[in-house]
Amino acid sequence: MASGKVRGSEKRRSSITAVPVLIISIILGVTLIWNKDEFKQTFIQRCQKFSGYNCQTIWDVFQQAFVNRDPCEVLPKAYDPLFLLVPLKAPCNTLMFWSGANYVAHNFTKKNHCFKTMEDFMLGSVLNDQKWCGKKGSNETYNTGCPNGTACDKYPVDFFWRRSSAAFGDAACGNVTVMLNGSYSSPFRETSVFATVELKRFEFPRVKHLTAVLVIQENSDTDCSNDSLKKLEKELRDKGIGYRCSAVTQSHLEKCASDPDKPCGACWSQ
Ligand SMILES: *[C@@H]1O[C@H](CO)[C@@H](O)[C@H](O)[C@H]1NC(C)=O
Ligand SMILES: *[C@@H]1O[C@H](CO)[C@@H](O)[C@H](O)[C@H]1NC(C)=O
Ligand SMILES: *[C@@H]1O[C@H](CO)[C@@H](O)[C@H](O)[C@H]1NC(C)=O
Ligand SMILES: *[C@@H]1O[C@H](CO)[C@@H](O)[C@H](O)[C@H]1NC(C)=O
Ligand SMILES: *[C@@H]1O[C@H](CO)[C@@H](O)[C@H](O)[C@H]1NC(C)=O
Ligand SMILES: *[C@@H]1O[C@H](CO)[C@@H](O)[C@H](O)[C@H]1NC(C)=O
Predict the structure, then answer these.
(1) Which residue minimizes the CA distance to atom 1 of ligand 5?
(2) Hey, where are the domains in the chain?
(3) Where does 2-259 sit in CATH, by number?
(4) What is the model's pLDDT at position 219?
(5) Which is the closest atom of ligand 6 to the Cα of 227?
(6) Beta bridge partners of 246
(7) What is the pLDDT of residues 39-49, one digit of tens each?
C-alpha cells in the first residue's frame, strides 16, 4: 500500500513536471542550435579580423578534424590539414611562449607589438577560450556537452592546442622568450605543454637563445635560482641554446608594456 502510494504520487509528479520538462527541452534544444551557430559565427568573425584568409574554407578544414568522430578519439594529427592550410610563420625574435602565465603574456603582447603569443596568430586567436567537439554519426560541430579532461584525457580541444604548440615550437627562431609564473613552486613545470611540446621542438641553430621572464609579485622572494629553472637551463644548454632568466614584477610588466619608447625586450633587460 505504501509503495502504491509512492508510485501514485510519483506518477502525478511526473505528469505535472512533463510540461515544464518539455519547455526546458525546447529551450535547451534551441540554445544548443544557437550555440552551434554562435561558435561558427565567432570562428568566422575572429578569422576575418586577419586579412588574406578564406575563412569558410578554413572552417571546413577545421571541422573535418573532428566531425562524425568520437570526441575521445581525435588525435593531434587530425589537425595536420588545418596547419598545412594555415602555416604558422613568424619573424625571428618575436615569439613569446608562456607557461602558467597566459593572462599576463596576452596582456603584454596586446600592448607591446614586439612579441606575439600563439593566441595572437590567426588560428590561436580564433580558437582561444573556445570548446568544441563532434559526435559519431553526426556531421555537426558541438560546443556544449563536449567531454573535458575528466571524461577522456584526449579530446579535440586539448589536441588542437598540442598540435598548435608543436607548430609554434617549430616556428620559433632566433631569440625566443617565455613567460613563467613565479608564484608556482616550480615555475618551469616538466609536465607543461611548454616543456613537453614546445621546448622539445627548439633546435640550435634555428633557435639561438631563450629568455625566461619570471613573473613575480611585489615583495616576492622567488628568483631565477629556483631548481626547476636549472632544469630548463640544462635542457637548453645541452642543445647549444643560450639561456638567460630575468625576474620581473607583474606590475612592472603592465606599466612597461605600453611604453612606446622602450626597445623590444627592454622590459626585462637589466
Ligand atoms: C600564477 O598563478 C596563479 C595561481 O594560478 C595566478 O593567480 C596568477 O595570476 C599567475 N600569475 C601570472 C603571472 O600569470
Ligand atoms: C589584463 O588586462 C586587463 C585590462 O587591461 C586587466 O583588467 C587585467 O587585470 C589584466 N590581467 C592580468 C593578469 O594582467
Ligand atoms: C550534414 O548532412 C546533411 C545531410 O546529409 C547535409 O544536408 C548538411 O549540409 C551537412 N552539414 C554539414 C555541416 O556538412
Ligand atoms: C568534466 O566532465 C564531467 C562529466 O563528464 C563532470 O562531472 C565534471 O564536472 C567536468 N569538469 C569540469 C572541470 O568541467
Ligand atoms: C639574442 O640574444 C643574444 C643573447 O642575449 C644577444 O646577444 C643578441 O643580440 C640577441 N639578438 C637579437 C636579434 O635580439
Ligand atoms: C624552487 O623549486 C623547488 C622545487 O624545484 C620548490 O620546492 C621551491 O619551493 C621553489 N621555490 C623557491 C622560492 O625556492
Answers:
(1) 175
(2) 2-259
(3) 3.40.50.720
(4) 87
(5) 5
(6) 213
(7) 999 999 999 99
